[in-house]
Every structure is written in structure tokens, then in C-alpha cells.
From TrEMBL:
Protein name: MFS transporter
Lineage top rank: taxon: Bacteria
Transmembrane segments: 20-42, 57-75, 87-109, 115-132, 144-166, 172-193, 205-224, 236-254, 274-294, 306-333, 345-364, 370-388, 409-432, 444-466
Subcellular location: Cell membrane
Keyword Transmembrane: yes
Membrane topology note: Multi-pass membrane protein
Native source species: Microbacterium awajiense
Ranges of residues in domain Major facilitator superfamily (MFS) profile: 21-471
Length: 481
């Protein structure tokens, strides 16, 4: 690269300190990921608070997951075309708007709309990772990527006790005002600190591809997320699931035949990218399974035979250290990636998750058992989530980093959505009646631990087949001097 590329690169070097840029983007990632656990403390009370059925109030959580999965790859492509910082700012404004809508809404419709807009902001994380590749010195990129990746777990882990404290002492709408305030602060910081993106991909935005991708994903994710309540063999679930698959197949055929696709599927099919994305599904499943299992196990009454009888706030404080572990590990993960490579880093993360679930299969009768297992989850996700974007960006062209990282985030979302549905189905199916309330049996948690272990093992096996170094034709162009 020369001429214009060198000029753009020099412009990128005249900017605020690289440490400040990383700190602001990490804060943006924390803010976006916080949205996933924002309403957890009031989830069981939503039917009463919103005067709606439990099935309807489930959309307060489902809408966030769906919007995140659908808009993340689309926002990645928009960032490649029109500037990554610009799209980050748009997403943060979307988060603020959604938070204000939910804060002002007394009924369920406004809250669901607001939560969907909050979920769309998750595209901030893969875009921030792509910005790092554009603006940081090559020696600092891996460590910074590890930090931003950690925010996917840290935001939720730290946000849970914060949400619990807010709802314990204040009116529930305050949660959304807090989210709006955080989004506004981060918007101002990004506008002030993060440099304008000058590295753009050629071409135009594929509107047809974006709509088709959204429709296909919506069908599949709705079938997965609502299968437990609607019935896995019900006409609605089958129509949504099969229809979504058909739409995505047609979408893939279309994307391979146009000049400026939403996602370059030929790049996505490269062995390192494809296997990393498959590992992402398994990693996402293993992470979200722990998010579902451990809090329930900690909070269920002792009389159920499996529960440990903690309050929501106490349970959130037990699981919170996993997020802190992810944050502390981020600089270590960056250095390890330099030393052993991201492929082995991903394998190490999968091993840590295997240890976590194997531990709870053997010991889960005391609070400290869950605390220790959750620390291993923090190690596993901290290493694995750091490795995945490194593997992606070493195997795709610079013009594809936003879209490719967005696609990787989509695969993680597929894993988390599947975990929520599968673990939820297991806990519901293996439950018993206690004082008129259905509670999971101890065996349900054992099966759930085994499923988490299986997902971690799939991630490990997949990681072992990822090439330690991409083939020459699969490497991205090196940065100019």
C-alpha cells in the first residue's frame, strides 16, 4: 500500500493517546454488554410491573437478544463502508433512545421496543475491535483486542449487582435512566477521543442482503428462543425455523452472485474463519449456560435439594468475579497470543471451561463450589473471546474487518440463544412441584452441567483444527510501515 494509504495511515497516527482510545472503546463495550443483564433483577416481577402475561414479558429479554444478533453483522458492514466510528456513534445514540423510550413507557410495548434498540447497540463491540486494528500500533493490537473482547462478559457480570442494587432501593424505571446516562457519557467520550475512521471499503451497502439476513435470522432465532413455550413441534416454531433456514440459503446464493455483498461468504468460508465461527457458537453456549445455571442454583431455596438459598444481590456478587477475571486476564491474553498464537489461546480457553463444568459435575453443593467454577468460566471466556477476533482479523482483508467481526459476534449470539433455549428446556422438563411452583430437580442441573461441558469440548476440538498460521492467500495485508 502506498500513496493514499500511507497518507491515511499518517492521519491515523495524529490522534489522542492510544491508551485513551482503548479505554474509551472498552467503556463503550462495557456499556453495550451491560444491557443484557439490565433487567435480570426484575425479570420475575415483569408480569406484575407491566400488567402483562409472562409469555409477553419474556419479549423484554428476547427482543434484546434478537436485535443484537441481527444488527451486529449489518452494523459491521456499515462501519466498513461509511466509517466505524460513525456507526459506533449511531449505535450509542440508538442505545440512549431505546433507554429513554423504555424509561418513559408504563406498558410492555414501549419497554420491548426500547430493549430492542438497546440490543442493537451490541454492534459497538466488534466495531471497536476493528477500530483497534486501524489505529493502534501492531504490537499493541492483540492486548487491546483481548480487553475489548473481555467487555462482553465483564459488562454483564458487573452490571448484574449494579442492577440488583438499583432495583432494590429505587423504582424500576431508574434502570433505564441509568442506561441512558451511561450511553450519553460514552457517546461524548467516543466523539471526543476516538479518531474519525479513514479506512473505508469500496462498494455500496447491500440493502436486499441486509433485509434477507434479518428475516432469516429472525425466523431461526425466534424458533430457538420461543420453542420451549410454543412447543418445538408446533406449526409456528417449525414454520419460523424452516422458513428462516430457507431464507438464509437463498440469501447465501444471492450474496455469492453480487459484486458488493453484505458479507463476503468466500472470506467467511476460509478455514480459519469458518472454524473460529463454529468455535464461537460453542463458546457462546458454554458462557450463557453458566449465566443461566449458576444464578438459579445459587438463588433456589435450600429445600429444593439443589438450591443454595441466596438473594439475587448475594448471588450476583458470587458470579461477578468471573467478569473481573476476564478484565484482569486481558493483558495476559494479549501477551499469550504473541507468544503461543491465538489458536492455542482459544484451545486453552476451552480447556478452562471444561474444567469449570467438570468441577460442578462433581461438586456443586456449596457456594464456594460455584464461586470456584465461575472463576474458571471467567478464565475460559477471557482467553477464548480474546482469541477469536484475533484469528478472524489475521485471516480477512482490512476492508472486511467490521463485517467479519460482526459475523463472528453473530455466531456467538447463536450460541447464547441456543443455550438459553436448551438449558431452559432442560430445567423446565426436569422439574417438580413445590408449594404450587415448578422448581428444577437436582438432576436437571447435572444434565445442564454436562451440556456445558459438551459445548466446551466441541470448542476445544474445533480450535485444534484451526491452522496455527493462515495460508498466505488467507492472511490480511500487513500494515504499512
Amino acid at each position: 500500500m502506498g500513496g493514499r494509504g500511507d497518507e491515511d495511515r499518517r492521519r491515523l497516527t495524529r490522534m489522542p493517546s492510544q491508551g485513551a482510545i482503548v479505554a474509551v472503546l472498552a467503556t463503550a463495550g462495557l456499556c453495550a454488554s451491560f444491557m443484557f443483564t439490565l433487567v435480570v433483577p426484575i425479570q420475575s416481577e415483569l408480569p406484575e410491573l407491566l400488567d402483562a402475561s409472562r409469555e409477553d414479558t419474556a419479549w423484554v429479554v428476547t427482543a434484546t437478544l434478537l436485535a443484537s444478533a441481527i444488527f451486529t453483522p449489518i452494523s459491521g458492514r456499515l462501519g466498513d463502508l461509511y466509517g466505524k466510528r460513525r456507526i459506533v456513534l449511531v449505535l450509542l445514540l440508538t442505545l440512549v433512545a431505546g433507554s429513554v423510550i423504555a424509561a418513559l413507557s408504563p406498558g410492555i410495548v414501549g419497554v420491548v421496543v426500547g430493549r430492542a434498540l438497546q440490543g442493537a447497540a451490541m454492534g459497538v463491540v466488534p466495531l471497536s475491535i476493528s477500530i483497534l486494528r486501524d489505529v493502534l500500533h501492531e504490537n499493541r493490537v492483540d492486548t487491546a483486542i483481548a480487553l475489548i473482547s473481555a467487555t462482553l462478559g465483564v459488562g454483564g457480570a458487573i452490571g448484574l449487582p449494579i442492577s440488583a442494587l438499583v432495583t432494590q432501593y429505587l423504582e424500576w424505571h431508574v434502570l433505564f435512566w441509568v442506561a441512558a446516562g451511561l450511553g450519553a457519557i460514552v457517546f461524548a467520550l467516543v466523539l471526543w477521543i476516538v479518531p474519525v475512521s479513514v479506512l473505508r471499503a469500496p462498494g455500496r451497502f447491500d440493502y436486499v442482503g441486509a433485509v434477507a439476513l434479518a428475516v432469516g435470522l429472525l425466523g431461526i432465532l425466534l424458533a430457538i428462543s420461543r420453542g420451549n413455550e410454543w412447543g418445538w413441534t408446533s406449526p409456528a416454531v417449525l414454520a419460523l425455523g424452516l422458513g428462516g433456514i430457507v431464507v438464509l440459503l437463498v440469501w447465501g446464493w444471492y450474496e455469492l452472485r453480487i459484486d458488493a455483498p453484505l458479507l463476503d461468504l468466500r472470506v467467511a468460508a476460509r478455514r480459519p474463519v469458518l472454524l473460529t465461527n463454529i468455535a464461537s457458537v460453542a463458546m457462546g453456549f458454554a458462557l450463557f449456560a453458566s449465566n443461566v445455571i449458576y444464578p438459579q442454583l445459587l438463588e433456589l431455596p435450600v429445600g429444593t435439594g439443589a438450591g443454595l438459598g441466596l438473594s439475587l444481590l448475594a448471588a450476583s456478587l458470587v458470579v461477578m468475579p468471573a467478569g473481573l477475571v476476564m478484565m484482569v486476564l486481558s493483558p495476559v491474553a494479549g501477551r499469550l497470543a504473541h507468544r503461543i498464537g491465538p489458536q492455542r489461546l482459544l484451545a486453552l480457553g476451552a480447556v478452562a471451561l471444561i474444567v469449570a463444568y467438570a468441577f460442578t459435575l462433581l461438586w456443586s453443593s456449596e457456594v464456594w463450589h460455584i464461586f470456584v467454577a465461575n472463576l474458571f468460566v471467567g478464565v475460559g471466556i477471557g482467553l477464548g473471546y480474546a482469541a477469536m477476533p484475533m484469528l478472524i482479523m489475521r485471516s480477512v482483508p482490512r476492508s472486511e474487518t467490521g463485517a467479519s467481526n460482526g459475523l463472528n459476534a453473530l455466531f456467538r449470539s447463536l450460541g447464547t440463544s441456543t443455550a438459553a433455549a436448551v438449558i431452559g428446556a432442560v430445567l423446565a422438563a426436569m422439574s417438580f412441584d413445590q408449594d404450587g411452583v415448578q422448581v428444577p430437580a437436582p438432576a436437571a442441573f447435572q444434565v445442564s452441567f454436562a451440556l456445558g461441558l459438551a459445548a466446551a469440548a466441541i470448542a476445544l476440538v474445533t480450535a485444534l483444527f484451526i491452522p496455527a498460521r493462515p495460508a498466505p492467500q488467507e492472511r490480511h495485508p500487513s500494515l504499512p510501515d
